[in-house]
Amino acid sequence: MLFSSMTFVFMFLPILLLLYLITKKELHNPILLIASIIFYAWGEPRFLAIMLITILINYLAAINIEKFKNKRKQILILTIIINLGILFYFKYLNFLLSTINDVFHSNINFIDIIMPIGISFYTFQALSYVIDVYRGESKPQKDIYKLALYICLFPQLIAGPIIKYHDIEKQIDSREVSFERVSFGTKRFIVGLSKKVIIANTMAAIADKVFIQEPNTFPHIVAWLGAFAYSLQLYFDFSGYSDMAIGLGMIFGFKFMENFNYPYISKSITEFWRRWHISLSTWFKQYVYIPLGGNKKGLVKTCINLGAVFLLTGIWHGAAWTFIVWGVFQGVFIIIEKIFNIQEFDKKPHSIKVNILRHLYCILVFVAGWVIFRSENLQYAISYLMNMFGILDLDKEKFIYTVSYYFSKGDVIIFIFAILCCTPLFKNMLYVKSNLGRIIVNFWLLILFFISAASLVANTCNPFIYFRF
Predict the structure, then answer these.
(1) Are 364 and 253 in a shared domain?
(2) CA-CA distance, 248 to 185, in Å (whole number)?
(3) Would you place residue 73 in the very low, low, confident or very high pLDDT band (cuts 50, 70, 90)?
(4) Among 63-72, 131-140, 236-245, 396-405, where is mean pLDDT lowest?
(5) Which of 26, 80, 116, 226 is the most exposed place for a label (fewest CB within 10 A)?
(6) By residue range, what is the domain housing residue 58?
(7) How far apart are CA 230 and CA 238, in angstroms?
């Protein structure tokens, strides 16, 4: 089930919210757990068993880590292997077989595997729980239903943000539901829905028109247009989902961490990754980077640790060489900035000219990275980037479409609006305190909701990009 669907917006959510508000607090967790299971099983019920097995494995592991303290490390390692083993089988096995076939010119048959939606997200949440118990940061959850609620809570189940167990442990037992929280959560949900339906889907249509063609069959300006359109699509698709997830969490009494903080205003790739997919970045920092030694063992070791983290970040995003190369690409710039101590440079005041140049550098890097991320294979990515930078021989006889085919007048308006929304210009919109200000904001949100609803009725919504991760 998609957040941006008629079924969710006009049936699932209203019924669940009404049931939640008219029942006693003691029934809130069971209601949310049942709703989350229905939500996940709506499209592919066969994958539900895999998630339930994951819950059971980690439930038993945490209890045994506390019970058998002399073997707690072995239990943790075994649990991590099992969790990652399940993830590897469904997400990476055929990629490994394909790579073996390519390298050794073999002909190993692929296995008919369909990856469960959201497996990367709920696997990382399960690992967070077991590791927190091992470290003594959390107690084992003796109530399996509460642990199940943590892992499969529907707002963040299939596309994040990745919620760490120690951040939400107390909220599972006790949380406040009030009119103010429901109201604010609803507004946050509408903002996210509008990002997805109005902006991301419009940008997706532009990007798809470009990326479906061979890179030598359209001019340089179209290559840049497609790259920028996809960059905006990805940001508003994923940040829109995060806004909806955070808003839904607030409606039901939960407080989830922010997942995006205007990453496209960054002046370095280091800053970009402090602002982009924050829940994933902090997960890798707490459970991979710091355990490897972080920045405590000298510059060389720090660079190796950073390289390992971004290699894993690329692998986490998908079973394809484009994702791996994209992760390495990001890591290279992070390491270069670490060597030149970019964080200290950031603390000093700089002229407007220097800041503009730094911002342009950052845009160039992440847009080029998104081209790699979006491409079907590395050959396509390289050719596309060569087109962007004017070093690809173009077949002008195949220039079938003009720029207006890719970019209509209506798209121009959405494009400009999207760029404005990439900045903190509207950051405090939902926090306006004056009566007039709130009336204006509420009226504006109502308009956005009706436009989004009209798009849903027209059946123009697309699946979220991050569902496949």
Answers:
(1) yes
(2) 6
(3) very high
(4) 396-405
(5) 26
(6) 6-174
(7) 12
Residue 90: pLDDT over 80: yes
Asked if the model's pLDDT at residue 461 lies above 60, the reply is no
What residue type is assigned to position 414 of the chain? I
Q: CB 95: neighbour CB atoms within 10 A?
A: 18
Do residues 265 and 138 both lie within one domain? no
- 199 and 106 in a common domain: no
Residue 260 token pair: 């995006």
Averaged pLDDT, 112-126: 91
Task: Using alpha carbons only, give the angle 238, 468, 367 rounded to the nearest 5 degrees.
Answer: 50
- The pLDDT assigned to 265 comes to 95
Q: Which of 174, 205, 226 is the last residue of a domain?
A: 174
- Do 157 and 215 lie in one domain? The reply is no
Q: What is the mean pLDDT of the chain?
A: 91
Across residues 156-160, what is the average pLDDT?
A: 81
Among 139, 174, 209, residue at a domain's last position: 174
Q: Are the C-beta atoms of residues 201 and 455 closer than 8 Å to each other?
A: yes
- 143 and 185 in one domain? no
- At position 394, the amino acid (one-letter code) is L
- What percentage of the chain carries pLDDT values higher than 90? 72
Cβ partners under 8 Å of residue 102, min gap 6: none
Whether the pLDDT of residue 462 is over 80: the answer is no
Report the domain count for the chain: 2
Q: What is the DSSP string of 223-255?
A: HHHHHHHHHHHHHHHHHHHHHHHHHHHHHTT--
- The residue type found at 7 is T
Residue 147 counted as domain residue: yes
pLDDT bucket at 426, cuts 50 / 70 / 90: confident
Q: Are residues 100 and 136 in the same domain?
A: yes
The answer on 137 and 186 residing in a single domain is no
Catalytic center residues: 317
Closest among 426, 437, 37, 14 to 239, alpha carbons compared: 426
Question: Helices 119-135 and 144-152 sit at what angle, rounded to 10 degrees?
Answer: 130
Please state the rounded mean pLDDT for residues 293-308: 92
Q: Is 338 inside a domain boundary?
A: yes
Confidence label for 46 from pLDDT (cuts 50, 70 and 90): confident
Distance of alpha carbon 260 from alpha carbon 239, whole angstroms = 6
1 occurs within a structural domain: no
> Please, what is the angle between helix 220-251 and helix 378-388, to 10°?
120
- Give the other-Cβ count within 10 Å of 133's Cβ: 25
